[in-house]
Amino acid sequence: MRASTTRRALLGAASAALILVSAPMALAQSAETPTIGVVAKIGGIPWFNAMEAGIREKAAELGVNGFMVGPTSADPALQVRAVEDLIAQGVDVIGVVPNDAQVLEPVLRRAMEAGIHVLTHESPGQQNVDWDFELASAQGFGEAYGQRLAELMGGEGKYAVFVGSLTVPLHNAWADAAIAWIEANEPDMELVGERYGVAEDVDASRRTALDLMRAHPDIKGFLGFGSQGPIGAARAVEERRRSGEVIVLGPFSPGQGRQLVHDGILTGGFMWNPKQAGEVFVTLGTMLARGEEITAGMEIEGLGVVEPDAENRTIIVDQLVEINRETVDDLAALGL
């Protein structure tokens, strides 16, 4: 890749305010030193900061070029532009945590046609990829939340569900599983609305939770899929002085939500380690760039022994971590 091409790509991205680039300036490639660029959903939030740390550390350990770019908002068009920039740079591997799986399909196809390997995370069933990997099964993750919310609400009352957006496949799969479990097992629980695509924006989540508490004074629970949803909903509950009355659950960054957990406002949830996900992007990316096959029964660092679904191009393992008052400080101490 020529230096002039690199400067044009970086200047164009900066002038358009499209992405926060956390990449080393030297992206020189070779067969021995592959370059792996990962596009996050949104830059600058704790969940993806932890993912970036995993990318950087694993890249240094393996001796490859690995970096993350984070769009300035959860706009699928910005992810498309970021992927286009990486194609222009001629990286060896592109990783993406999609905001909209379908919107990304054409640009990921162009990447593969250019000979670039493609990995995704949080997007099972994604088209035009080598592999999508998941650290939790969608069904198990969603059902765990549905069951826990029902327990905490005593099996009755109104609840609302937030997702990162209505086009994030995995968030909506979790929501589908949670809602289906509740409907099958807790007939006295009532879903308010359908679901709200605000959970990658803490302010939008807070505003939506405040609106819902005004419209439904008897609401008893918020389930937020997206790292900012539980934080925003918990802040709304705190603002309305309804701690202990309204349950807030969901995956979030422990460092960001620690005080809310200890104050009893944010109940907790389940998560996987986003830093580990960043490491897996680099591990799998390096394997693909070096021509290694992913086969059933092999052990991959960060994933364990895998049983890949070759037809659907997915690798799914279950590595759930519970977030509560007993665990949140230790998880935050890991930089999560």
UniProtKB/TrEMBL annotation:
<feature type="domain" description="Periplasmic binding protein">
    <location>
        <begin position="36"/>
        <end position="293"/>
    </location>
</feature>
<dbReference type="InterPro" id="IPR006311">
    <property type="entry name" value="TAT_signal"/>
</dbReference>
<keyword id="KW-0732">Signal</keyword>
<comment type="similarity">
    <text>Belongs to the bacterial solute-binding protein 2 family.</text>
</comment>
<dbReference type="Pfam" id="PF13407">
    <property type="entry name" value="Peripla_BP_4"/>
</dbReference>
<dbReference type="InterPro" id="IPR050555">
    <property type="entry name" value="Bact_Solute-Bind_Prot2"/>
</dbReference>
<feature type="signal peptide">
    <location>
        <begin position="1"/>
        <end position="28"/>
    </location>
</feature>
<protein>
    <submittedName>
        <fullName>Substrate-binding domain-containing protein</fullName>
    </submittedName>
</protein>
<dbReference type="InterPro" id="IPR025997">
    <property type="entry name" value="SBP_2_dom"/>
</dbReference>
<dbReference type="InterPro" id="IPR028082">
    <property type="entry name" value="Peripla_BP_I"/>
</dbReference>
